[in-house]
Structures are given as C-alpha cells and as structure tokens.
Amino acid sequence: MRKLMRVVSVATGIVAAAVVSISAPAMAAGGGGEIKQHEWTFDGPFGHFDKASLQRGFQVYREVCSSCHGIEFISFRNFADLGYSEAEIKAIAAEYEVTDGPNDEGEMFQRAAIPADRVPGPFPNENAARAANGGAYPVDLSLIVKARPDGANYVYSLLTSYAEAPSHMNVPDGMYYNKAYSGNLIAMPQPLYGDDITLANGGDTSPEALAADVVSFLAWASEPEMETRKRTGIAVMLFLFVMCFVSYGSMRYIWADVKKSKA
C-alpha cells in the first residue's frame, strides 16, 4: 500500500508539473512599469479563446492599431480560428493589396489579397515606418504577447495606463506619459479613448473593454494553436497518469509468482 501511495504521489507530481508547463509558455526577458492583473479566458491549463472577443479585438486592431503595427506572421486563412466563414475571410482579404510578381514583363505588381496571403503591414520597410513615426519604429504585433513577461497583462496595462504626467516630470515633444511603460515615457500616443469605435457585433466600448478584446486577439495571434496544445497536453498527461497505475499493477502481477516461489 505504501508503495502504491508513493507511485500515486510521484505520478501526481509529474502530471501537475507538466500541466503547469503546458499552460505557461516561456517568455522573453523585459519589464518595468506598473502592470495590472486582468482575468483572461485563455489563462491556465483549461484556458480557451472567446471567439466573440477575438472578433471584437480584430476590429479594434484593424481600425486603430493596423495604421502603425503589422501582424506579419498571420495569414488571412488563420482567421477561421476567430469564427469567420470562408466567404467572410475572402471578403476581408480582398480589402487588402499585396505585392506580387514578377509578371511576364518582369515587373512586380499589386493585386487583391487572397486567404493564403499573409496580412500586409502598413509600411513597405523599416525606414518608411520610422520616417512616418518621427524616428520611432512601431513593432510588429504578431508575437508581442509572448515577447514580454506576463505579456497579456503587460499589453493591457500599456493600453490603459496613459495619464497626465506628474507636475515635476518633463515630457518632451512627441512623448507621452504611461504608468506601465518602463521609464514612463513612450512615443506611441494613446490609441484607445472609448466610444470612438462602433463594434460590429455590439459590446462594451470602454477603453478597458476594447483593450481586453485587442489583447485577446493579439494573444491568439501570438499562439493560434494554444487551445490544441492544451487539449493535447492534458490528454497526454491523463494517459501517462493511467499508465502509472497500469505499470504498477503489471509489476505486482509479474513479480507475484517470484515472491511466492521464494517464500
């Protein structure tokens, strides 16, 4: 009985450690600023994406963020994960133009995007992006949630922590005060004010709600396969947990005759 309890204890520890590992992917180093804690549907080993929130977040990205930031690692066909139909994805893609070619004359040309294309960014290159933003380079948002410690809360805090600077603090032209940003001075102006976006499917349009929706969308963009990974990981851990008991029972059965013969 004691051996069985030890086996169960070890197995439980292995499963618990593995479940934690599948629910908390590694993130790059960084930090600074005041980070708010928000409850996310995709947190934890049983976390999932709220498709309604993802669609609202995608709309916020398109209407606000996409003028400066790209999501270069996402293809239009990936939007099926957000709950869009094939026809809707084709319609969304057709609103964008991508560079293709060369044609028969050896020249590159512009055409309407198709579902297989990646979502084009707002600028053709980094120099153009810096020139349009006073020297600052708007980062690509495809992996932003995984590129920061506590990434979802960091991005949410960044979007909702703009404020008036303290009287003793000098804010240079082209910079803005943000409590969540390291050093508190950021080149990106406040993007969300609330009630300036009409959501296609309705919903709360406060700055906090819009920030939560766009962060959910960016969390999905950073790891579209998260739900599959978690489901697979939990299934594997349950299988290993059961196999611990099967292996222990098999060992007891195989060695039973040996113990009897020695007795």
Q: How would you describe this structure to a colleague?
A:
- With 263 residues, the protein is mainly α.
- It starts with a helix and ends with a helix.
- Residues 1-31 have low confidence and may be disordered.
- It folds into 2 domains: 1-25 and 228-263; 28-74 and 137-222, Cytochrome c-like domain (Cytochrome Bc1 Complex, Chain D, domain 2), CATH 1.10.760.
- The longest helix has 37 residues, at 226-262.
- The relative contact order is 0.19.
- Helix 1 (2-23) packs antiparallel against helix 7 (226-262).
- 43% of the residues lie in helices and 5% in strands.
- It is extended.
- A two-stranded antiparallel ribbon has the order 1-2. A two-stranded antiparallel ribbon has the order 3-4.
Largest sheet: 2 strands, antiparallel
So what's the overall shape? extended
In CATH, the homologous superfamily of the largest domain goes by the name Cytochrome c-like domain
Sheet-strand content, in percent, reads under 5%
Number of E-type strands: 4
Amount of helix: 40-55%
Mean pLDDT metric: 85
* Strand line-up of the largest beta sheet: 1-2
N-to-C span: 20 Å
Q: Tell me the CATH architecture of the largest domain.
A: Orthogonal Bundle
- Number of domain modules: 2
Order of helices and strands: HHHEEHHEEHH
Radius of gyration: 25 Å
Low-confidence stretches: 1-31
- Please report the number of helical segments: 7
Task: Classify the secondary structure makeup into a structural class.
Answer: mainly alpha
CATH topology heading of the largest domain: Cytochrome Bc1 Complex, Chain D, domain 2
